[in-house]
Amino acid sequence: MILEGLLCTRTAGGQPHLAPMGPAIDLESGSLTFKPFQSSTSYANLVRDRVGVFHVTDDVLLLAQAAIGKVPLLPANRPARQVPGFVLREACRVMEFEVVSIDDRQDRAIVQTRTVHSESLRDFFGFNRAKHLVLEAAILATRFHLLNLSEVAQEFRRMAVIVNKTGGPQELAAMEFLQMELEDRMSIQPTDQLPPLSAKERS
Predict the structure, then answer these.
(1) Annotation: CATH topology of 5-120
(2) Residues with Cβ < 8 Å from 72, sequence gap 6 or more?
(3) What number of H helices and E strands is found in the chain?
(4) What is the pLDDT of residues 47-102, one digit of tens each?
(5) What would the pLDDT profile of 13-45 be if each residue is shown by its tens digit?
(6) How far, in Å, CA of 10 to CA of 54, rounded?
(7) Does domain 129-188 have CATH number 1.20.58?
(8) Which of 42, 82, 121, 190 is 20 to 30 A off residue 147, Cα-Cα?
(9) Residue 109 and residue 37: Cα distance in Å, rounded?
């Protein structure tokens, strides 16, 4: 099973680095398997320090900002309890881990870990369509360079209708942030005029 969240590693200078990540989780042991690109900062940090902290959060604005690499201000944090690293104080749940093995034979390395400490910090908000759609939009945003931007824009417009209906201020801000990022990308790579949303897309 894939668990979406935020991975916090340390840079070479000892500063926290946030990145959205969807590791596979072993439901029995709680161990996490990451598949970062070898070109990523997260991968370099994991190879060097061989530890990290994975956060389960319902803060979709932070997830969206981290997906684009534009977190304006690092959230409140404290030192991790069992590994050298940082814990975001407003996360719902955190898992501190050590790297057990790294398979780097593919562009996306396979990083096997062992969870050494796990704790709950606050309740998860609960299921909400807007939060889930912003999460999907953030995942798409990490792939702007691989996707047809016209198709992404149409999907964002469909998502925005539902986010506006079911979301709160945080979700609306996150969706607007991602739409602005897409507009910036499309201004560099112009696309055709998009058709209006159909009635089915608005439902």
Answers:
(1) Pnp Oxidase; Chain A (2.30.110)
(2) 65
(3) 6, 9
(4) 999 999 999 999 999 999 999 999 998 999 999 999 999 999 999 999 999 999 99
(5) 999 999 999 999 999 999 999 999 999 999 999
(6) 12
(7) yes
(8) 42
(9) 6
